[in-house]
Amino acid sequence: xxxxxxxxxxxxxxxxxxxxxxxxxxxxxxxxxxxxxxxxxxxxxxxxxxxxxxxxxxxxxxxxxxxxxxxxxxxxxxxxxxxxxxxxxxxxxxxxxxxxxxxxxxxxxxxxxxxxxxxxxxxxxxxxxxxxxxxxxxxxxxxxxxxxxxxxxxxxxxxxxxxxxxxxxxxxxxxxxxxxxxxxxxxxxxxxxxxxxxxxxxxxxxxxxxxxxxxxxxxxxxxxxxxxxxxxxxxxxxxxxxxxxxxxxxxxxxxxxxxxxxxxxxxxxxxxxxxxxxxxxxxxxxxxxxxxxxxxxxxxxxxxxxxxxxxxxxxxxxxxxxxxxxxxxxxxxxxxxxxxxxxxxxxxxxxxxxxxxxxxxxxx
Length: 364
Ligand code: DP6
Description:
Blueprint: H1 2-18, E1 19-33, E2 38-39, E3 43-44, E4 48-66, E5 75-80, E6 83-84, H2 86-99, E7 109-117, H3 127-147, H4 152-166, E8 178-181, E9 195-197, H5 204-207, E10 209-214, H6 225-231, H7 238-258, H8 261-280, H9 291-307, E11 312-315, E12 321-326, H10 330-341, E13 350-354, E14 360-361
Parallel strand pairs: 5-7
Antiparallel strand pairs: 1-4, 1-14, 2-3, 4-7, 4-8, 5-6, 8-9, 10-12, 10-13, 11-12
Helix pairs in contact: 3-4, 7-8
């Protein structure tokens, strides 16, 4: 009987090596201190700091099947929302080739990758962060299965490093709460190679923050983030910007500890304006803000002045506005959004998001 059980176990584990499926869900994040400018192999020119979200999520699963004949090729199919996407398939194949020396099993199997987002695909919210963090976590889990190595501590750090190679901001989505990616002056803990959750304690006011994502436009961006990062190489203000980002990071680490919401507003908005200022001052310069973006930013500032509430806006590399606010003011802010902001949004669309706990393994 005992022998039978062992045989059964061995057969099962052999099967999991032959074929199987692994699924992760991973959230997007909103940068408070922006990553804009990179060098080398996806290394940031300055530290960035973000809040991981909870509602804007990518679900990804990888089905794997051992190849009949071993060769060095990467064989994969990619489905987004149930539909095959060759554009993404190519990008992921390039990514797999890029990491294959570290994960040689990627050429031993054929893969079917299925992915979907909880937010509208073209809503302009950073889908590469949730997408590449979910994919990196699936690869890490597969690595555990195939190699039989388990190291919980190293798992997330390596996942973050792997996610970074797909998309810089994805490195931060591996962790919940607030996350730092990039070396910070005077602190050994933070690295350019991977992101880490904030080391210090977070003041209660920042533990339950909300992010209302106001969708001004759903259209695809004229200039993608990768092109934008590259334009920083010749931007005349680059060095001053990297200095500013370092200072803002150091200040923000204090702010999150002490609960200084006034300073939070100041830094976060300055970061958003600087990001778009850098786009305008690139060669060629470009503008991603729309009229609605500016209207919403103006109204948020008016609302803050009138109500004395620490609401702040921030922007990604696109026209949509993220309205950040502490949970205590939720009712007032929801009213404000309904009355004053929704008519600037495309089809009155917005995403009611908030700080989240990070990715989840879906098939433990
Ligand atoms: C403005 O992470 O999308 O959202 O590394 O080329 O994939 P790649 O760029 P990406 O850049 C994000 C830029 C940003 C700011 C941020 O999230 O820090």
